[in-house]
Amino acid sequence: MKFYDRTEEIATLHKIRENAKENAQFTVVTGRRRIGKTSLVLKAYEDMPLLYFFVGRKAENLLCEEFRQEVERKLKIKMGGTPANFSELFDYLMTLSKEWSFTLFIDEFQNFYRVNSSIFSDMQKIWDLNHLSSKINLIVCGSVYSMMTKIFRDKKEPLYNRQNRFMHIRAFKPSVLKDILHDNAPEYSNDDLLALYSFTGGVAKYVQLLVEDHAFTVDSMIDSIISSDSVFINEGRAILVEEFGKDYDTYFSILSAIASGNTRRSEIESMIGKEIGGYLTRLEDDYGIIKKEIPLGAKTTTKNVVYTIHDNFFTFWFRFIFKYGHILEIGAYNQMRTLIRRDYATFSGKMLERYFYAKAAESGKYTILGRWWDRKGENEIDLIAANEIEKTAEVYEIKRQRRNININDLDVKVKTMLPKITALKGCTMEIRGLDMDNM
Fold it and tell me: Which residues, in sequence order, are CB contacts of 329 under 8 Å at separation 6+?
């Protein structure tokens, strides 16, 4: 698959490279695994000198030998032997960068914890002593989100706040998914577009896997994802076990409950039989996997709270693959595909709401985006998009099929909602329906 999008991120990386010719730059690139962080940096600097250090889980001396070879090959210099440790190599490069501006890209940076945890404090000392006279463009990224966040945002860590920028790479936007389908399957349907969004969430690697498998329809995507050699089947576990560590069973139970529609804390606790307040906080703040939502206009102290998995792939994985893992364990792939097809309309209906939210956000037209529901769950509004500057607001009910949209009922819900949302006071209001024809 060809390289798509990322024009803003590439422009930012180019600007950082130019700035590094005068002052040292330290950039942290984060984002969930498979989002395309490494590909982005390599693409941005494909025509520029770049040292690429991949921190594998091996002995420090072996890494230093690999890094030495990279330095000598890319910079056309002889170092006179392998550095005794990474700190010695980093000190050498920081000194070299005082006369020569170049980019050093360290990938899987968090793995230094396993190699030698003192590397971080050594880097802090070397950076602090040299960066004011250096012209290095230092970029680090890692696939374990919680560890990367801890390294640079925990005040107790030596590299806390040493970075100039903290770039968070996000999934492809709806317009990019449209471009990908248009290039590869021009006759795609809106249901195919919704499936691509629902199953991958715009995560670059997942989209690439489906494109390379020529899976461009709903059915072919399901066939590709649910097959004996599919990487999708073990993907959720492979990523999240490393994030969660030994407590992953509890976290998986919570995420499975949320994916199955139990979005209130009391519902989740009832399902798994234990108190989960601390787990929910860590899932949101430390791991960035769930999102706590409150109705638009409600106070932050409200108890009218629901939790969602904001990553589409993890929502799909827990809703189907984790929940029905016993089916896959006995190799009943056809049965699993039948089950997903049976429930696809309901699952994708919720994903359609996310799609239109993402589309509204991408448009840049609004200053407020959100949902609203009452405490009893009797009234719910799928999407509210407002512009506080222009004093306009649009309220939507979202369904797969136009015939299931009831504007009269929506109008009644809006009349119930409006007195509770101060930000919409005085706005010109439009009440509409959105269905798959509007994608």
Answer: none
The secondary element (H helix, E strand) that includes residue 393 is: strand 392-398
Residue 377 pLDDT > 90: no
- Least confident range of 235-249, 318-332, 392-406: 235-249
Burial of 88 (0-12, 13-18, 19+ CB in 10 A): middle
Pairwise CA distance, residues 255 & 246, whole Å: 16
What is the rounded CA–CA span in Å between residue 304 and residue 306? 7
Residue type, 334: N
What b-and-e string marks burial along 216-253, b requiring 16 or more CB atoms within 10 Å of the CB? bbbebbbbbbbeeebebbebbeebbeebbeeeeeebbb
Residue showing tokens 């032997």: 81
Report the alpha-carbon distance of residue 247 to residue 266 in Å, rounded: 20
Rounded to whole angstroms, how far apart are CA atoms 211 and 246?
35
Give the 3-state secondary structure of residue 129.
helix
Q: Which residues of 124-221 form beta strands (DSSP E)?
A: 137-141, 165-168
Rounded Cα gap, residues 31 and 2, in angstroms? 21
Tokens of 395: 């309220």
Q: What is the per-residue pLDDT for 94?
A: 97
pTM value is 0.92
% of the chain residues with pLDDT over 70: 100
pLDDT in tens, 180-216: 999 999 999 999 999 999 999 999 999 999 999 999 9
**DSSP-derived 3-state class of residue 427:** coil
